[in-house]
Amino acid sequence: MRRTQVRDALVLRRSPLPSGDVVATLLSPTGTWRAIARKGRLPGGNLARLSLFHDVTVQFWRRHDDDLALITQVQLNGALAGLARPEAYPYAHLLAELADVLTVEQPVDERCYALVASGLRGLHAHADPEAVGLAYAWRLLALAGVAPDVRACAGCGGEPSHLWIPAGQARCAACAAGVGGDRDANEALFLGREGLAELDALVRGPLASAVHQPPVDRARHWRALRRFVRWHVGHVRALEALPC
Fold it and tell me: Residues 5-32: pLDDT tens digits?
């Protein structure tokens, strides 16, 4: 393979090492990857350009495909100062961690890169970053193929009222009462007809509408997202840490 490469990327994570180096988790159109920046704790240079959520072009070197890439040069393409706002920062972490978890050892849709970049820009500029975070989190799940289908009851085809989390399906009240064992039945979360319509809009509707017309009861939708992610994705610390 060609040892030196250049790739556009978004900085999702930074992990300092005892040596003073920093391992950066980067999202590119081709997927998520990790690279090391030498002496990353020193001020200026590559460290400053590899700050969280920055849009960068990275030149890196590695001998073999399975080696950790060594960053040799970083060009900063864009920094979103608005993400440092306390009301936006937690949701930027959520999108970054979700993108990382959903793309590890998985085939990556190149639209993931564009979606995360769009979400970060939205969090930077929008007056309601919570609405942006909720809409883009569900849309990342949809892009990864794990979002629920709540348009009709999966049991009888009738009008749904519950989200059956294990299967990612909607159920009417009667079908929700009879699904699976006790554990599965406890995972039939009541959202109501309007709540499920809002969830469907978050998952499948136009993103602009999902952001500008967020759900009425946001706390209920955050609970649904948290429980759904726990079941289908695993522990996402940024999601669990949100106060909602």
Answer: 999 999 999 998 888 788 999 999 988 9
Is 176 within a domain?
A: no
CATH number at 69 reads 2.40.50.140
d(CA 117, CA 114) in angstroms, rounded, equals: 5
Q: How far apart are CA 125 and CA 198, in angstroms?
A: 23
Which run of H or E residues covers position 209?
Answer: helix 207-212
CA distance 240 to 21: 29
* Residue 144 contacts residue 165 (beta carbons within 8 Å): no
Q: Which domain holds residue 112?
A: 82-147+189-240
What pLDDT digit, counting tens, does each position of 85-128 carry? 999 999 999 999 999 999 876 667 789 999 999 999 999 999 99
Per-residue confidence (pLDDT) for residue 52, from 0 to 100: 95
Q: Locate all alpha helices (DSSP H) within 104-191, ordered by sequence.
A: 111-125, 129-143, 173-177, 182-186
Question: How is residue 172 written in tokens?
Answer: 């009417």
Task: For tokens 């975070």, name the residue.
Answer: 133
Q: Do 129 and 202 lie in a common domain? A: yes
Angstrom distance (rounded) from CA 219 to CA 224: 9
Q: Do 125 and 217 belong together in one domain?
A: yes
- The three-point CA angle 53-55-57 to 5° equals 135
Contacts of 232 (CB under 8 A, 6+ apart): 141, 146, 165, 168
How far is the C-alpha of 14 from the C-alpha of 33, rounded, in Å?
Answer: 12
- The pTM of the full predicted model, rounded to 2 decimals, is 0.91
